[in-house]
């Protein structure tokens, strides 16, 4: 008898990209981290700008409404930043959509607003959009590792 028998072809398992030994979410971490930071930056800017406009508002009612709206938007981006740890693609795509909608609303209200802070707006959109493919792959990989 020969001790060097090879297993039958059906017994040989090919490594999958979704095996824990092969798939590491860390390979996408840098890109996702930049997008997460962008979400947190938007949250912080919204809170600061909202507080400034509320402070500069001529009456208390306008100040309260301004503060409530901008802080609500800030909370949305803050929650999306934290949610990007569990579902990076969903959170980053949602953040990009909400941010884009806010920019469009600003343009409708004040067309000159597109030029205000254009570099920061561009950087935020760049990091969110750039990380979408990595976030999608990471989220799918995490889903398959959990068996779902």
Topology:
Layout: H1 29-56, H2 60-83, H3 88-109, H4 118-130, H5 132-145
Descriptive overview:
It comes from Phnomibacter ginsenosidimutans. The chain crosses the membrane at residues 37-55, 61-82, 89-108. This is DUF4233 domain-containing protein. Keywords: Membrane, Transmembrane, Transmembrane helix. With 148 residues, the chain is mainly alpha-helical. The protein is 68% helix and 0% strand. The protein is built from five helices and no strands. It has helices at 29-56, 60-83, 88-109, 118-130, 132-145. Helix 1 (29-56) packs antiparallel against helix 4 and helix 3 packs antiparallel against helix 5 (132-145).
Key features of this structure:
5 helices, 148 residues, mainly alpha, elongated
TL;DR of this structure?
This protein has 148 residues and is mostly helical.
What are the segments in which pLDDT stays under 50 over at least 5 consecutive residues?
Answer: 15-24
Biggest sheet layout: none
Q: For the terminal residues, how far apart are their CA atoms?
A: 44 Å
Tally of DSSP helical segments: 5
Structural category is mainly alpha
**Multimerization status:** single chain
Strand proportion, as a percent range, falls in under 5%
Q: Let me know the number of strands.
A: 0
Mean pLDDT: 82
Q: Work out the count of structural domains.
A: 1
Rg, Cα atoms, Å: 23 Å
Principal-axes shape call: elongated
Order of helices and strands: HHHHH
Please give the share of residues in helix: 55-70%
Transmembrane segments: 37-55, 61-82, 89-108
Protein name: DUF4233 domain-containing protein
Keywords: Membrane, Transmembrane, Transmembrane helix
Organism: Phnomibacter ginsenosidimutans
